[in-house]
From TrEMBL:
Primary location: cytoplasm
Location within or outside the cell: Cytoplasm, Cytosol; Membrane
Domain Glycylpeptide N-tetradecanoyltransferase C-terminal intervals: 270-450
The EC number(s) this enzyme carries: 2.3.1.97
UniProtKB keywords: Acyltransferase, Cytoplasm, Membrane, Phosphoprotein, Transferase
Protein's name according to its UniProt entry: Glycylpeptide N-tetradecanoyltransferase
Organism (species): Neogobius melanostomus
Residue ranges, annotated region (Disordered): 1-39
GO CC aspect terms: cytosol; membrane
Length: 469
């Protein structure tokens, strides 16, 4: 009897226990879960959904806007740049010379990083490192357009060309890695350059490819990257730098506008390329942007290695026409201008007596199209340099367009620098809403007009990521 009662009691208790477990499970269904990492949640979504969310965030962003005009910049507070040797936006600069004389010693120890991160000097001679850095730069550089439909795609050859110019310094390829998994989350680089500013030639560096992981762009990593690169450059005795940005920082030396000329008009209209009038029919747009089938300049041919010395002489002979330019050695002309498969296309004009009178070149910039139903990439031809001594600049530029179209480029992009201003509207270029601002670090001089700028190296690869602090 007691055994039966005990058994019954045990069954009741076990049933109660089972009931309690069910109740707990039911209650847990309504209990709020602990907050998850929003970045992890975002990464779990399909890429198309991620792009949609980013576009929405861009449209409804109520945070501080990035200054893109001088008027906006004058109202902005630059916490970092106000501590650097650069002219203030309110300054009326009329003199020439360094902002700071470089008094005192250069810091010998690297700048400190938060716990869990460490500095790394990237070995570009290692192909595996280059491939890893290529992925990192593609993902981390602020290289997507405003509506998040295109992303730059740098090849290994492009990175080596951009960062391994003659006399390059390995310590100037400065990266930040996560200690736990060695993941690259920040990068900045510089290459040596002899920059002509008015009548002075100054030994400088060109800042290249400032990249910060998207999760760390608001964590003050950018100022640390700039400071560390500056320290490493100063240790080599160089105190000035040239850099560009699409936003207004203190203080632009020159503001140049982007212009683009459609080559593959049908494709550009299908992908809603900025600047094309979508109200126009495809047939009419194709007819409007039609180019000649052949080039018209006599003696125009592809540049060869034997032309390096003559092209160098052409560059040297007309540098006095400009107030901002890069003086290239013959070795640098070979590196930056000589044609490379899939990267650089350069042509020269040979006269009847065998001398060279004109030259131009453009390089290949590929952007991935994100989630487009038909097209996967956009091929842009960026004008690299142009030298006109005997040929009409309009004819020479038109020949560049014809050759770029023949080589399969979709659009031709140029700045209103050099003598381009007289060619752009005549050849049906469209003015872009974007501009490129040139800056000098630790050097002050009067403002330079865009037609007095001749930077023969593609300014696009000098771009700093969006950074306004």
């Amino acid at each position: 009897m007691f055994g039966s009662e005990k058994q019954q009691q045990t069954e009741d208790e076990s049933g109660g226990a089972r009931k309690t477990k069910k109740q707990k499970k039911k209650a847990n269904n309504w209990r709020p879960q602990s907050p998850r990492d929003p970045f992890a949640m975002l990464n779990e979504l399909p890429e198309e959904k991620q792009q949609e969310i980013q576009r929405a965030l861009h449209l409804f962003n109520l945070g501080p806007t990035v200054p893109k005009t001088l008027e906006q910049a004058k109202k902005h507070q630059y916490h970092f740049w106000d501590t650097q040797p650069v002219p203030k936006l309110s300054d009326n600069v009329t003199s020439h010379g360094p902002v700071a004389e470089g008094e005192g010693g250069v810091r010998t120890e690297p700048y400190s990083l938060p716990q869990g991160f460490s500095w790394d000097t990237l070995d570009l001679a290692n192909a595996a490192v280059v491939r890893h850095k290529n992925t990192s730069i593609t993902n981390y550089k602020s290289s997507e357009d405003d509506d998040n439909t295109m992303r730059l795609d740098f090849s290994e050859e492009y990175l080596k060309w951009a960062l391994q110019s003659p006399q390059w310094v390995p310590q100037w390829h400065c990266g930040v890695r996560v200690n736990s998994n060695k993941k690259l989350v920040g990068f900045i680089a510089a290459v040596p350059a002899n920059v002509q500013v008015y009548d002075k030639e100054i030994k400088m560096v060109q800042v290249r490819l400032l990249c910060v992981h998207k999760k760390l762009r608001l964590k003050r990593m950018t100022p640390v990257l700039i400071r560390e690169l500056t320290r490493r450059v100063n240790l080599q005795g160089t105190l000035q730098a040239l850099y560009t940005a699409a936003v207004v920082l203190p203080t632009p030396l020159s503001i140049c506008n982007y212009w683009h000329r459609p080559l593959n008009t049908r494709k550009l209209m299908e992908m809603n390329y900025p600047g094309l009038r979508q109200s126009m029919t495809v047939q009419r747009a194709v007819k409007l942007n039609k180019l000649p089938e052949r080039t018209k300049t006599q003696g125009l041919r592809l540049m060869t290695k034997a032309d390096v010395a003559a092209v160098h002489n052409l560059l040297q002979s007309n540098k006095s026409k400009f107030d901002l330019s890069i003086n290239l050695s013959a070795q640098e002309v070979e590196h930056w201008i000589l044609p490379r498969d899939g990267l650089i296309v350069s042509y020269v004009v040979e006269s009847e007596d065998g001398g060279l009178t004109d030259a131009f070149g453009f390089n290949n910039v590929i952007s991935k199209l994100l989630n487009h139903p038909v097209h996967t990439e956009l091929k842009e031809a960026h004008l690299l340099f142009s030298i006109c001594t005997s040929t009409d600049p309009v004819d020479l530029m038109e020949d560049a367009l014809v050759l770029a179209k023949f080589k399969g480029f979709d659009v031709f992009i140029a700045l209103d620098t050099m003598w381009n201003q007289g060619c752009l509207e005549k050849l049906k270029f469209n003015l872009s809403s974007k501009s490129l601002n040139y800056y000098l670090y630790n050097w002050k001089c009067p403002v330079i007009k865009s037609d007095k700028v001749r930077i023969t190296i593609n300014s696009f690869i000098c771009n700093l990521a969006v950074f306004t602090s």
